[in-house]
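Archive entry. Fields below.
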Amino acid sequence: MQNAIVGILMGSDSDLPVMRKCSEILKNFGIPYEMKVLSAHRTPDETIKYTEDAKNNGIEVLIAAAGGAAHLPGVIAAKTTLPVIGVPMPSSLMNGLDSLLSIVQMPKGIPVATVGVGNAENAALLAIRILALKYPDIQTKLESFIEEQRKKVLSIKIEE
Amino acid sequence: MQNAIVGILMGSDSDLPVMRKCSEILKNFGIPYEMKVLSAHRTPDETIKYTEDAKNNGIEVLIAAAGGAAHLPGVIAAKTTLPVIGVPMPSSLMNGLDSLLSIVQMPKGIPVATVGVGNAENAALLAIRILALKYPDIQTKLESFIEEQRKKVLSIKIEE
Amino acid sequence: MQNAIVGILMGSDSDLPVMRKCSEILKNFGIPYEMKVLSAHRTPDETIKYTEDAKNNGIEVLIAAAGGAAHLPGVIAAKTTLPVIGVPMPSSLMNGLDSLLSIVQMPKGIPVATVGVGNAENAALLAIRILALKYPDIQTKLESFIEEQRKKVLSIKIEE
Amino acid sequence: MQNAIVGILMGSDSDLPVMRKCSEILKNFGIPYEMKVLSAHRTPDETIKYTEDAKNNGIEVLIAAAGGAAHLPGVIAAKTTLPVIGVPMPSSLMNGLDSLLSIVQMPKGIPVATVGVGNAENAALLAIRILALKYPDIQTKLESFIEEQRKKVLSIKIEE
Amino acid sequence: MQNAIVGILMGSDSDLPVMRKCSEILKNFGIPYEMKVLSAHRTPDETIKYTEDAKNNGIEVLIAAAGGAAHLPGVIAAKTTLPVIGVPMPSSLMNGLDSLLSIVQMPKGIPVATVGVGNAENAALLAIRILALKYPDIQTKLESFIEEQRKKVLSIKIEE
Amino acid sequence: MQNAIVGILMGSDSDLPVMRKCSEILKNFGIPYEMKVLSAHRTPDETIKYTEDAKNNGIEVLIAAAGGAAHLPGVIAAKTTLPVIGVPMPSSLMNGLDSLLSIVQMPKGIPVATVGVGNAENAALLAIRILALKYPDIQTKLESFIEEQRKKVLSIKIEE
Amino acid sequence: MQNAIVGILMGSDSDLPVMRKCSEILKNFGIPYEMKVLSAHRTPDETIKYTEDAKNNGIEVLIAAAGGAAHLPGVIAAKTTLPVIGVPMPSSLMNGLDSLLSIVQMPKGIPVATVGVGNAENAALLAIRILALKYPDIQTKLESFIEEQRKKVLSIKIEE
Amino acid sequence: MQNAIVGILMGSDSDLPVMRKCSEILKNFGIPYEMKVLSAHRTPDETIKYTEDAKNNGIEVLIAAAGGAAHLPGVIAAKTTLPVIGVPMPSSLMNGLDSLLSIVQMPKGIPVATVGVGNAENAALLAIRILALKYPDIQTKLESFIEEQRKKVLSIKIEE
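PREDICTED_STRUCTURE:
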């Protein structure tokens, strides 16, 4: 695999089944990525180190999954100028509404691009829309993806 | 002004005072933008036309503000491959939580990068992080902005 | 079947089990209908085309199911003068409260007649109340339906 | 004024400022209506009597405003086969979300067509979409209304 | 059984498993009651008739269970001067918070004594506290019940 | 004044303006009451002492107002067999929904009869419905109150 | 076992499976504790007695679990000057958000240190952070615990 | 002033008016403290540095105020073994419920002792209860404070 241009972080490997849906889309688009477990609270130093180095290591977009207090995307966004996409994880208290609010409500100055709860696919596709501005082959694949998606819906026939 | 590379849409001019905070940041960064009132419900045809043409007209990022049912960012995202940033507007029912949920919860396949309710500044700064991947001068300005922001916090002294 | 006078739309065939409860009531009342999968986001052009043509094709009431961001009923209502009934689908985040708010909170000027979350039966019965204003045989059947419903409740005996 | 074909009810005259926005739209469309204060809880007998007689008195659509426990639209819908439109009133507890849920969540069998909280305009416009199925002149006026609305949005120019 | 002094109503026999917990407590206290399925929406006339006659038939407290729009307790309270206890039923949308708000938020003038969602036991025990003011033997049984309850908690031993 | 038969408690005199609406209704009905500031948290011993003595002192119904954590009604209900009516106070966090839930959700065994947020009038009227079971003159006054209330609604005329 | 320095209370033994996670951490740290079922509502006198004596009996931190109306931590905090940690239990109505609000929203003057819903581990670890201020060996164990936790996260490898 | 033993942090000086209520109570108790503006997002490095050094600098309890995404208390708790008290700030979206959830819902392993929204007084009093375990004079003052508080409530007389 080439050097990763997308970094996917999550605070616990319990988030992995959801985030595999993110990495699979990147893989289908042929976009090199790396995926790591790093916690804002249990491994704060390593999380900060990874983020500080990300840009120099060739990363162009960061994707971070988090649930509950959900600090990871914001902690990362504070330590990089790269676009950071936050994926709120479903939670037992509020099905992820709490995670969503902890991620999307960043103070003015430090944005996190937030997608729907558990919607790891859209995190990948948002990274792809961003990268497509720079990489024409990603743009081409994105257009095919949308066309296939359209055809899939139109092919559904409801039987009486 | 050069050709706009950021398009800012809103469904009603009542959103303008909030969205001016978005355009001001772009202006401070020297990023050419255009700002329009177009409604997903009251001018659906014109909204679709604008979006279909955006990429060919040189737009690289779209920002859309909406409140309540808040369909505008999603309607736009369905008609372009550009990154779309959604800004939920405060609302009388739920202070904008309803707007946020209508925007962030896009179905799989069509992402909208969502920021906090009324946080038009972060919509601009997210667009800037995206554009900084391509434009080195925007990257430089972004780094200065973050440094100034840091200094501003550190300069606050609490008097007893 | 005669030409449909009720059009039932949904964004995904995962909504079909719920919406069958809508079409079954229409069938029981002998009201011709058609049911289609069309997505506001994945097939925007086909959705708009269907809606623009609905009135000329003899449709008198449109029923649209949607969940999450739930844009379909509003997108349709923006492209027709027919009464549009929105059916919010249950969702994983808020059991459908989010879908309800995305549907019912249309801006002034473009109403969507909203029923309870997942209450596809009431969407059918609301269409029937509307059509009963014009079609005396539907009015007669509606009165019988309500009388039967009354008798069903009264027939329940609680055993000690 | 001709015999009313739309009946507008509200439980308290504190709802009148909101519901005037409903009656004004009907007046602008030249649709005869009547507006009354009748409470599901404080005048239950008179409310039921009014509703039982509504159809025979020429009413074709009923609009009911209610807040808090918000029983009025449902109580009416239980005593008529006419389409009933419910307008949730803003409330001090939840800004009207409580009113909305009390109105929209009718049990299967007795629908209430619900609009957004305080959106009395859309209640009128929904009644108009329903009546337009039967009355061609109302249909004509509805099309003009939508066209004017479109033009109004397009006329907005944002000044730099 | 003697003439009932407590009337228990519910809109659907799906509420019966919950409400049996109410009637069982009354039975244990030796308080005569009757339990009926009557719907505010599907059998409005019979519901009103039952309530109008309740006092003359010897009923002293009415208990009504309802879910969703949950109009039954309020509709009853509007037609009697007896104390009415409302039991919000769990619901699919909000686990019964919606039912609770539809019941507890009665307008000024017509109170419904509301207990917790699905807490049919407490509805019985509240009726018992009310009746104990008049019937000394119920007071005696209530005191025993509370003492037994106390002993039950104190008897629990946590093993290491 | 005769010996009080209704005791009204509140945790802070900031609740007094709301609870005066409760005591005024009792006064209008000629029902002797007493009103005290006692806090479950700041004066736990005095609160318990008052409640333990209430029945022997001739109190028949207790009304307790509380906001936020809102423990007062429940703490009282645990120390008496009298019916306890809880009045949730409006709060800054959730307008009183939090207070409502802290009051209404008592564990099985210890009921609190809960009314709407800030609805001190209905607390008085619920006490009155309870006392009317025992005191025929209160019953007579209650019937007059309801009739007056009815007439007041019917006297409202909407002017065009 | 030495004299307990942490007292763990819960209102019902249904809370025991959750609270065992609290006592297990204390056991692992070698901190003597005692665990009791005491209800604020069903055994108010015994609860107060236990709390009044706690300090003299050598208790230094109290932990109380409660759900729904969730009065236990607040009732205890009103009767001691020891730090009280509240653990909101999951509930059927709101998954524990109601419990959390009933616990955390104590009036000014009587604090309860609140942890996340069902997060009995963090209640133990908060007690440990408090006790570590006084007991150097607990401080040493706390530092080891955090280091182990860090290593555990870093040891996770995501396989492709 | 002696060396501070309580550190009070906030992300913005807009939190100062609320947090002054915290520092005033500490001052009244004669407890040395320091108060600083440090942002988890705008000054991440300085925030971490301060926290890493806190214990060695003599700090025994940390209090952190934060609103919205509200990461500050959690970010601090990840970098110290001292007890950390979180004060959720009122917010425009949800009056601080969002802040509360972002603070209280820390993952297992890293607790934050959370108080009510905006309840800076209770943050101080919780710090005081913790410090009173070690410092007998603080314990004495705490007992006086509680006694004064009791007397203040009992001195309130309600006039008719």
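CURATOR_NOTE: The first helix of chain D runs from residue 16 to 28.
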